[in-house]
Amino acid sequence: MNIKIDRQKLGKRFADRRNYLNITQQELADMTGSAVNSISKIETQGEGFSVETFFALCSALKASPNFFLCGVASDLEIVEGVGDELFRLKKPEHFEIISRIIDVLADVENMDKVDVTV
What we know:
The chain has 7 helices and no strands. The chain has helices spanning 7-20, 25-32, 36-45, 51-60, 65-70, 75-87, 92-112.
């Protein structure tokens, strides 16, 4: 089996995730034991890193290898991402709105499971 990895997309996913987490290239380099110019090369070309560095990047950026390789987040990563976004909310009324939205979405999902045929 021959699996082709788009290294530029891989590098872009690393950069996008780093930016989303508000981490600088220098901070990511420090977290992974890499040089900052290596981080730059990884992000722009998707090249120049070992398997160990790949897993160090995944760990530092708090995402699965599958996320970076395929662009698919796990359920846990999605939940954690939503949690990170909710953490930014400051007003209690915003939490109430989010709670109502979740209730509506749960009701809609349950409607899909109900047989309404006559």
